[in-house]
Design brief:
Blueprint (H helix, E strand, L loop, with lengths): L3 H17 L5 H5 L8 E3 L6 E2 L1 H12 L10 E15 L3 E14 L5 E14 L5 E9 L16
Parallel strand pairs: 1-6
Antiparallel strand pairs: 1-2, 3-4, 4-5, 5-6
């Protein structure tokens, strides 16, 4: 099996994500499966399942980057550090670090958003690759176990 279609899907999502942090959710949204099993675990809340919940979660997240949002950028760059990629006949994944850096609108302040991301892609019935699951969190450096323990002490 050629992995070029899978590679194109990964790159398509990355291009969509560049637009997402500029306030446009649609290119990323089009990359997600519309299957009832689709899931999204973004760094702002618990995992969501199903197209309607995934869409609602994406729209809430992108509002941070739109006009009036706390992270509306005048200038932004997004980079990807790929850790792993694999594709089989109908399932593939990519593990990457995502880093968006930019100047906030109306301010001189520069902010950085860094995420550890795992995405699972599935080949749909029409042959296209879509995101079946995306998990993103802010853990990009080593940290002690105590940061994951609640109620200890």
């Amino acid at each position: 099996m050629s992995t070029s279609q899978f590679d194109d899907a990964v790159e398509g999502y990355r291009e969509g994500l560049r637009l997402f942090v500029e306030g446009d959710p649609e290119p990323c949204w089009r990359m997600f499966s519309e299957d009832d099993e689709v899931t999204l675990a973004n760094p702002l809340g618990p995992p969501r399942r199903g197209p309607a919940e995934v869409r609602r979660t994406m729209l809430a997240a992108v509002a941070n980057f739109q006009e009036g949002g706390a992270f509306r950028f005048d200038e932004v760059t997004t980079q990807f550090e790929e850790i792993a990629r694999h594709a089989a006949s109908d399932l593939g994944y990519v593990v990457q670090l995502e880093r968006s850096e930019g100047r906030l609108a109306g301010r001189d302040e520069t902010v950085v958003i860094e995420l550890r991301v795992t995405m699972v892609f599935r080949r749909e019935d029409d042959g296209t690759w879509k995101v079946a699951h995306r998990h993103a969190d802010p853990i990009t450096t080593d940290r002690p176990l105590s940061t994951a323990v609640r109620g200890a002490g």
